[in-house]
Amino acid sequence: MAVELKPSWLKVLSDEFDKPYMADLKKFLKEEKDAGYKIYPKNADIFNAFNKTPLDKLEVVILGQDPYHGESQAHGLSFSVQKGITIPPSLRNIYKELATDIPGFVIPNHGDLTEWAEQGVLLLNASLTVRAASPGSHQKRGWETFTDTVIKKISDEKEGIVFILWGSFAQAKAELIDQTKHHIIKSPHPSPFSADRGFFGSKPFSKTNEILVKEGKKPVDWQIH
CB of 24 within 8 A of CB of 142? Predict the structure, then answer.
């Protein structure tokens, strides 16, 4: 697991890579590969979210749980898949909500959300790797310790960040966030199992932009081209 992070992230996270839990995590990932398991995303994309969204440019966090576990799907950004890959159900529902929430939004023909990341939207999964065809297989191995630290560091170092927390797993992370200086938008998860229970109609994207404008910041252009 080669770690190359932007300087703004390294400044606040470099100590994490020397901690025992990270050594255990690296050992676990090596054992998985040595056993012949395919791991997603590929090594170069594990920290993609951080490298597309440097800490000094970060304005919004969308928290996911696990990378996609299918061939060529995951590329290190939560809810996003590489171009040419079928759009997964949760992302289809995100696009449906965008179409009713953001005037003029046109549903794209691909699921690559890199354009959001490049505008300061950190697309962070709680676990940064997964075994192929085995959802949740790399949970409780150390990634959550790392990404919880990331959320705390964002909370400590920044002000006025919008955290979008979909579903109970993401909402449990609210305790890591100083709500006196940041904004939290919550709703059920966009998964087909829960989208009808309050995700549709929750308008997280227009709410985010309203907050950003109020903070004197640039709104996100949610349209994916």
Answer: yes
- Distance, in Å, from the CA atom of 220 to the CA atom of 89, rounded to the nearest integer, reads 23
Among all chains, which residue has been given the structure tokens 């297989």? 137
* Res. 6: pLDDT tops 80: yes
Task: Please work out, in degrees rounded to the nearest 5, the angle formed at the alpha carbon of residue 183 by the alpha carbons of 154 and 97.
Answer: 110
Joined together, the tokens standing for residue 116 give 């959001």
Tens digits of residue pLDDT in 31-48? 999 999 999 999 999 999
Burial of 214 from C-beta contacts in 10 A (0-12 / 13-18 / 19+):
exposed
Cis before 41? omega within 30: yes
Is the per-residue pLDDT at 1 higher than 70?
no
CA separation for the pair 173, 80 (Å, rounded): 21
Arithmetic mean of pLDDT, 136-152: 97
Q: Find where tokens 């790399």 sit.
A: 138
Q: d(Cα 1, Cα 3) in Å, to the nearest integer? A: 6
Which residues are marked as active site? 66
Closest CA to 110 of 84, 91, 137, 130: 84
What does the pLDDT look like over 59-73, one tens digit per residue? 999 999 999 999 999
